[in-house]
Write a structure and sequence with these properties.
Blueprint lengths: L11 H9 L43 E4 L5 E4 L7 E4 L17 H5 L5
Antiparallel strand pairs: 1-2, 2-3
């Protein structure tokens, strides 16, 4: 395809489909599910749902430490990023931890998928 005939006005669906099939795109598709709501539009969407809080504490995507519902401790170095996991209930150095681990079923019980 020549430069003059190249499509530049992709819909989000076309952009993601083209990227997944290794076709040239005018930009990289954006999946902003892990950024604070409203900071960036997303090309990837899914059905609306909200998991329950479970054992989560702190505020995700804010500078500092927070814990997710699965018991992972996260540290974010700046606002607007999810950060990185610093501690997890199941780590690869302790395979014995896999046997007694219980998933946070309360997250599903408290979920809102209406």
């Amino acid at each position: 395809m020549t430069t003059q005939n190249r499509k530049t006005d992709f819909t989000s669906r076309e952009l993601v489909t083209a990227a997944l099939t290794f076709q040239e795109t005018p930009r990289i598709p954006i999946d902003s599910q892990f950024t604070p709501e409203g900071t960036q539009p997303s090309d990837v969407v899914g059905p609306p749902y909200r998991y329950g809080k479970g054992a989560a504490s702190g505020v995700p995507c804010k500078k500092g430490t927070y814990a997710d519902a699965w018991g992972c401790r996260w540290e974010a170095g700046e606002d607007g990023v999810s950060g990185e996991v610093k501690d997890a209930p199941m780590d690869s150095d302790n395979w014995e931890g896999y046997v007694p681990f219980e998933p946070p079923y309360s997250v599903l019980v408290e979920a809102d998928d209406s």
